[in-house]
Structures are given as structure tokens and as C-alpha cells.
Amino acid sequence: MSAPRDQHFLVDQRAVEKIAGFVDVSGRRVLEIGPGEGVLTRALLDRGATVVAVEVDPALVEELEFLFADEIAEGCLQLVPGDATKVDFPPFDIVVANLPYSASSKITFRLLESGFEVAVLMYQKEFARRMIARPGKPGVGRLSVMVQTYASVKPLLELSPNSFRPKPQVRSWVVRITPHEPPYPLADRGVYADVVRVLFSYRRKTVRKALRSGKDAFAPEAIERAIAGLPDDLLQLRPEDLSLEEFALIANRMSGCLHDELPARG
Fold first, then answer.
1. Domain for residue 166, yes or no?
2. Binding residue ranges
3. How far apart are CA 101 and CA 115, in angstroms?
4. Is residue 43 part of a domain?
5. Which residue ranges are tagged as binding site for S-adenosyl-L-methionine?
6. Does residue 18 share a domain with residue 49?
7. Which residues hold S-adenosyl-L-methionine (predicted)?
């Protein structure tokens, strides 16, 4: 079967076994996004998982229904046709998936909002590197800040294009994502997400100018009120130079909170 656009089937069986074994899935409900031809699905089922597989391609759904007819009848596998950026997810505990490159960001943010115990996910290598770029360091961006605010990320495995059919033009990383509470108090998580988005939309500007450019997200009076409550040295920084604590402070000021003073930058 030929691969749909943007889908690269994992054909390296040793990699499949490693990915399926990175977390204990026995007796757990595992969400798999983009099961493709079902090689990872089979490995998860063999380890005792109940799999919820979300597949956007109707031809692949039909093929999976045929290949896994017994498992579907037994209730071990639930196929969910649809786009993983939009379709409702049935209840799940763990995520194990080879994500489509073009939807990696949207799906990752959706998963973090949905909540899960642990995820083992495959990404394009450069995308995964951005996820672990430390705030205040080169390469940091909206993805880095949002993921690290709500989860820890650990690289587990690197795969070459030879592990896939058809071969992608890039290398891939498999990472473990473990959710945690934000390291600093957030008055409003929605405001925090908007602040991070706005600041990185104007990443070459200072924080002061970037906030004032964010009139699509915040009322001008709210922006000016927040700026008045923030340290001047912070307002002169660029967004890529901020720590997670400083992002939290800016968002809390935008939410109207006036506590959580920052220590002086060292």
C-alpha cells in the first residue's frame, strides 16, 4: 500500500519493538495517532494494551478493520476515523504514536490539554530539538516554552530515513513526554498561552514592544496595566531571553495578579 501524503510508515521492526516497550502498556488504554499499516498497533496489542487508534485516511481505516477484525471484536482495539487535530479522543491513559510531521505542533498542544500519564511520541528531529530548547537559550520558541511549562521531555531514540517507507528527508526522534504541574503559579492558563504566543509572534522586539503589538489578544488598557507592573529590565529583554518564571510573571500581570515578585536577574 502506498503512503498518503505526509505519512511515512515505520518499517524497522527493531525500532517498533523499542518504541512499544519504552513504557509499560499492559492493561492500559493507549492512544495511537496515525497507526498506518498497524505495525506499532500490533506491538502494543501484543504487550497487553487496549489501543485507541485515530487514523485520518479512509483506505487505511478499511485495511486496519480487516487486519484487526478479531481484536476489534474482542474490544482490544478501537478505531477512530478522523483528523487527530479535531476528532474527539475517547478516554486514554498513555500515548504512543508516530505523529505526522505537518500536524505535530497542533497534536502535541491538544494532547497536553487533554491530559495523559506519559507519552512516547516520534517527531521530526529538528522539531523535537525545539521542544527541549531551554528558555533563554538559542532555538527557544513558543513550542519550547509551552511544552516545558507543562511537561518534561526526554529523547529516547534517533531513527534514520531508512527506518521508514517512503523515506523522509529528515531524521526522527522518539521522545518521552511526562506531564507535570507548571513550575510557577499561573493565574490563568489561557492568558499564559496567549502571552507566550504574542511574545514569540514579535520575538525580535523587546517585551514592552511585543506586548503592545498584541492587541489581537489583549485590550490596550490591560497591556498598559501589565507593563506598568513589570520591572523595566525585564521589559527591555527579547522574548527568547525570558525564563519560564518571567513568562509566568508577565502572564500573571496580564491576568491582574500583582504578587509573585521576581528575584533580580543574576
1. yes
2. 8, 10, 34, 55, 83, 98
3. 21
4. yes
5. 8, 10, 34, 55, 83, 98
6. yes
7. 8, 10, 34, 55, 83, 98
